[in-house]
Every structure is written in C-alpha cells, then in structure tokens.
Amino acid sequence: MSTPTETTRLAGLATGLESDLRRYLRGLGGLCLFVLVWWIGAMMTQPSYLLPGPADSMRAFIALFQTSTAIVVPVVGMELVLPTGLAHLTQTLFHYVPGLLLGAVCGISLGLAMGWNGSLDDWLRPLVRVLRPIPPLAWVVFAIVWFGIHHTGAAFIVFVGAFWINFYGAYGGVEGVSGELTDVASTLGVQHDRSMLTLVALPSAAPQIMTGFRTSIGRCWMIVVGAELFGAPGVGYEIINASNNLAMATSVAYMFLISLAFLCMDVGFRLVERRVLTWR
Q: Are strands 68-72 and 79-83 parallel, antiparallel or unpaired?
C-alpha cells in the first residue's frame, strides 16, 4: 500500500513527464511546420537548384557518407580515411576545438581576474572596450598573415570569438557576487583573497560561466564557418565550394551536418552542466 508521500512523489513525476512530453510534441510540431514551409518554398522557386527541397537535401546528406576522403591529422601527420562528410567535419574540429577551449580558458581567467580585482579592472577596462567591438572575422587578414591559410589561422579566429563570450560570462558572474556571501565567508574564517575567490566567488559565478561557455559552443560554430571562407579546410569551405558549383543541396547537407554536431555538443554539455550545478 502506497504512503501519502509516495503517492505525492509519483503524482509529481507523472506531471513532470506529461509536461516534458507536451514540450517535445510542440517542438516536433514546429519542426514539421518548418519542413512544410521549406517544401512549399522549394516547389515555388525556379530554377529549382536555388532552393533545394527537403528530399533533395536529405539525399545529398546521405551521399556525404557514401564516399571516403583522406585527411591528415595536424601535428601528428597521420592520414585518416573517413566518410567524406565525417572527414570534412573532422577537419573543422581540428581548429574549432583548440580555438574554443583555449579561448574559453583565457577568457574565463581574465574575466575572473578583472571582475575580482578592481585595480586590474581599472587598468584593462579601456583596452577591453576598444577591442571588444571588433568582430572575430575582422581578424581574418591578420590570421592569414600570421599563421597562413590552414588550421592555425582558423583556430585563431575561433579563439577570438570564444574569448570574448567567456570573458563576459566570467566577468559578469564575479561582479555580481553578493556582498552578503563575502561577509558570511569572512565571518567563517575565509580571509585571503585567493580563498575568497575560489571558495565563494567562483561557485557563485559558476552558472554564468557555464552559460557563457555553452553560448560560445554555438557561436563558435557560426564563426568557424566564416573562418573557413578564406580557404581553411572543413565544412565551411565545402559549403562555399558546393555553392560555387551550384550544388546547393550539398551546401544544405553540410549545414545539416553542422547542426547535428552542435546538437550533440550542446546536449553533452547540458548533461555536464547539470552535474556540476547540482547544488543550484
């Protein structure tokens, strides 16, 4: 026989599942509506290659995995033979991942330092205000001159984009730490500045830092496609190359591939975020 507590818990679980199901069904409905509008638009567009329909795009997507392409792993120099779509996605990841991670580490570190240290903030704030409005893609010419047309140059562009997003996430998180928290910590014996930062400010700012990093995951996919326009190998270059040959369905297929890669990364990071922020 169920106790009142168990009955309440089961009722709450059922309500939560029903709410999740309703939300997923709405999302599926919105996706189906988008595909319908896309299909109608493709039917009405002439010549037809200007806007390939869902069926043509799906066939092009499947074709990406029916042939193989050899790529070279940077630094190591090892050759990999992968399905064409996966090969070009891997090439993009060779500069996307290092740029994202290095930009996040540097941005979060500087954001924490400036948000916590008023003197450092006074020194560097004017410089930040000068550099921040410059779009990451504006650095393409310098990336070509400094690093050449390859993975390093594209990684630098991604680094710039990831740096500022994570910088402001960390800076805003630390700057918003409640004075009451630091007062309580001082009362409990936390006196040193470094201890206050690691034990109080960093945990308090963690939600904003995590949100900033999650934002940079998506934003840097947009940036990396632009970074590949100047010739760096990867999905972005293949999108432009296909469009130059009027193979628009192939361009859309590569866009699908980017969306799937982002979706996998976003879902994975959300799981990590929930574990890290279980206290919230």
A: antiparallel
Question: Structure tokens of 121?
Answer: 């903030």
The total number of residues written for the chain in this structure: 280
List Cα–Cα distances, 110 to 107, 113, 200, in angstroms: 5, 5, 18
Task: Compute φ and ψ for 80, nearest 5 degrees.
Answer: -120, 140
- DSSP characters for 209-231? HHHHHHHHHHHHHHHHHHHGGGS
Cα 179 from Cα 182, distance rounded (Å): 5
How many CB atoms neighbour CB 218 within 10 A? 14
Tokens of 19: 């709410």
What pTM did the predictor assign?
Answer: 0.83
- Token code pair at residue 202: 């960093």
pLDDT (tens digit, 9 = 90+) per residue, 178-197?
666 666 666 666 666 666 66
